[in-house]
Input
Amino acid sequence: MERRPFGTTGMELPEICFGTMRYAAKTPGDDAPSRAGQRALEEALDLGIDFVHSSYEYGTRWMTGKVLAGHPHRDRVRHAIKVNVPDWGEPKFDPAAFRRQVEDALRDLHADRIDVVQHLQRGGIERLLGYDDRAEPQRVADLDAVLEPLREVAQRLRDEGLIGALTTFPYTVGYARAAIASGAFDGIVAYFNLLETEMVEVFDLMRDQGMGFIGIRPLMGGLLTDARIDRAALPPGDRMHDAGWDRAYDHLAAARAIVDPEVGEGGTARSWTSYALKFSLIDPLIASTVVSINTPEQLLEVVAALEGARPDPALLPRLHEVTARFRAEHGVRADGAGVPQYER
Ligand SMILES: NC(=O)c1ccc[n+]([C@@H]2O[C@H](COP(=O)([O-])OP(=O)(O)OC[C@H]3O[C@@H](n4cnc5c(N)ncnc54)[C@H](OP(=O)(O)O)[C@@H]3O)[C@@H](O)[C@H]2O)c1
Output
């Protein structure tokens, strides 16, 4: 597995980060999907995918802890975790809550250090407005009050050797700009795939400051795969029949004029799954992409998908033009549509 620098942190991360949101049941048990997920993580570690993204919200840390507890490479594994302080509806930043979330993760993951803390400043806004540009001014204004105690608690945890890089999950580009300008963060962790190219708008600013970037959901939750690219052919009961995915499929239709020639005979990749994964690493600023890998079969496909030619970086601004036009015409999830489905 190729590794890439994460900004100027000195960390080299594997191109693929193992995302744990969907790979095991939320309740500890011995069901077949959890067993497949367990094998996927064990085999991923053997293949050099030693970077794991988790959150207490996913309910799957029991499995990650089970795999890592006695694992011979436990010390080599790098962890990225979400730390949500203040969480939705909470009025202000609480350093004790921040520390508690880090310490809980260290215990549950049998880890000595969290290498990438991904801070999410939610706060006194409704959950569904998180991604909405209308909520941005309030979140940016609140950032001022969050920064000082955040820096303080992060520095203390760093001094204790418990955490490495401090990053932010900005939700919107405007918040990302404010976070970059603050100088408080080593990097940004955000959605990045063929249909979610927004963060390219701050890539140069990040480069100038030596910050690193980690992308999330390269397959757009599974939509950008051969199995789901054609919505009409989805099997009954597939989660992407849900109306929450209508916009994403409309957006895909707008992007296909650019992407179709890239996929298949004579293109950059032989399959949609492969192209989407390669695209998610299109810029050298992107250190790693966090993908949910739920079975050993998906793992092998993900690893094979990265072989061969990579997309021309000139495609990124072209795809982003489509994204920007789509956003302008349809709003940025202005009604919150799709958010819950995308995240679970
Ligand atoms: N705010 C945040 O920080 C945040 C939010 C969301 C997610 N995340 C992280 O990002 C990770 C990825 O998110 P995501 O699951 O929404 O998006 P994703 O990685 O783009 O999509 C993953 C889905 O694609 C399908 N898939 C995986 N490998 C495949 C393959 N080889 N062939 C065909 N289909 C394949 C699987 O769905 P099926 O098994 O159903 O086919 C899988 O669940 C999560 O695990 C989590 O760690 C972070």
